[in-house]
Write a structure and sequence with these properties.
Blueprint (H helix, E strand, L loop, with lengths): L2 H5 L2 E2 L5 E5 L13 H16 L3 E8 L8 E11 L3 E10 L2 E11 L39 E6 L14 E7 L7 H8 L6 H5 L3 E5 L1 E6 L8 E11 L2 E10 L4 E13 L8
Antiparallel strand pairs: 1-2, 2-4, 3-6, 3-10, 4-5, 5-6, 7-8, 8-11, 9-13, 10-13, 11-12, 12-13
Length: 269
C-alpha cells in the first residue's frame, strides 16, 4: 500500500488541504495520534502538493488528537525557488492546533556525495530477539510494525545501571515500502532509547521530530541506531541514524521528549 493509504490520509479538491481521521491503529500508547504519523501525514501532503522530494522536515507537537477526531492539514508555500521550496503545514482539530511542520523539498545536481556516519556492528535481524509488544499497544500503531532488539536490554533487565546511551533496533512496517512516511514514523522511536540510557523503565512523549533524508532505497528491514545524548530537568534529547540492511544511510532523525516513568494503567481509547 502507499503512504496515504497506510495513514488513512484523505485528499480534498484542494491540493493544499488534506484530512486525517484519527483511528486507533495510528495512535500511540497514550491513546492519541502517534507523533510520527502526524509528521508523516504532513510530509505526504507537502510532497504531493509540490511534486518535489523531501529534504528535511521538522514537527512541533502542540496538542493531542484522539479518536474519533479528524485532523485537517493545510499546506502553505512559504518560499518557492527553481530547485527548492520551503513549505509549512499545520494540523488542526477544529480550532485546536495539533502540530506545525516546516520542511524543505527539492532536488539539486552536484558532482560529489558521500556518507561519513558509521553503522554499528550488530547481528542481522533474523538473529535478534523480537521486541515484546506491551498489552496497551495492541490494536495501535505499534502492532502494525515489527521490531527486533539488535543492541540493548530486555524489559526484565530493568531497573539496572545506566547504559552507554546507544540502542539499536531492526524495524519494518509490513506492506509499507521505504518512504518519507515510513522514515518519519520510525524516526519517532528515538525516545525508546531513554530507558536503555537511564537503566530504568521510562520513556517520553515527543516535543518535536525532525527527519533529514539522504536517500530512499528499497530494503526489507531498517536499522535504527538510537543515540541518547542527555537527560536533564525532565527532558531527554537524542538522535537516530536509519540504515538499510546492507549498510546504506537512509536518513537521520532527532527529537526532544518529556521524560516519564512508565505507568501500568492502560491509555484512554
Amino acid at each position: 500500500m502507499d503512504a496515504a493509504e497506510f495513514l488513512g490520509l484523505e485528499p480534498t479538491d484542494d491540493t493544499r488541504r488534506w484530512r486525517l481521521p484519527v483511528r486507533k491503529e495510528i495512535t500511540s500508547g497514550l491513546g492519541a495520534l502517534f507523533g510520527g504519523v502526524g509528521l508523516g501525514a504532513a510530509v505526504e501532503a507537502m510532497v504531493q502538493h509540490t511534486g518535489r522530494p523531501l529534504v528535511w522536515a521538522t514537527a512541533q507537537y502542540l496538542s493531542f488528537a484522539r479518536p474519533p477526531s479528524v485532523v485537517d492539514i493545510e499546506v502553505v508555500d512559504a518560499a518557492v525557488g527553481h530547485k527548492t521550496s520551503q513549505v509549512r503545514a499545520t494540523g488542526h482539530v477544529g480550532d485546536l492546533e495539533i502540530f506545525t511542520v516546516n520542511a524543505a523539498v527539492g532536488r539539486r545536481d552536484f558532482p560529489a556525495d558521500g556518507t561519513w556516519a558509521e553503522r554499528p556492528d550488530v547481528p542481522p535481524p533474523e538473529d535478534c530477539p523480537a521486541r515484546p509488544l506491551d498489552e496497551r499497544m495492541k490494536g495501535r500503531l505499534a502492532s502494525r510494525w515489527e521490531m527486533r532488539m539488535a543492541k540493548g536490554r530486555g524489559i526484565d533487565e530493568f531497573p539496572g545501571p545506566p547504559g552507554d546511551g546507544r540502542t539499536a533496533f531492526w524495524a519494518r512496517i509490513p506492506g509499507l515500502e521505504v518512504s518519507y512516511t515510513s522514515l518519519s514514523i520510525l524516526g519517532d522511536m528515538v525516545p525508546a532509547g531513554i530507558s536503555q540510557a537511564l537503566g530504568k523503565r521510562a520513556g517520553g512523549n515527543s516535543l518535536d521530530n525532525t527527519i533529514r533524508v539522504l536517500q530512499l532505497v528499497p530494503t526489507d528491514w531498517v536499522l535504527l541506531d538510537v543515540r541518547i545524548q542527555g537527560v536533564a530537568h525532565g527532558f531527554g534529547h537524542g538522535l537516530a541514524h536509519i540504515w538499510t540492511e546492507d549498510g546504506r544511510l537512509l536518513a537521520t532523525a532527532s527529537q526532544s521528549a518529556v521524560v516519564r516513568g512508565f505507568r501500568e494503567e492502560p491509555p484512554r481509547d
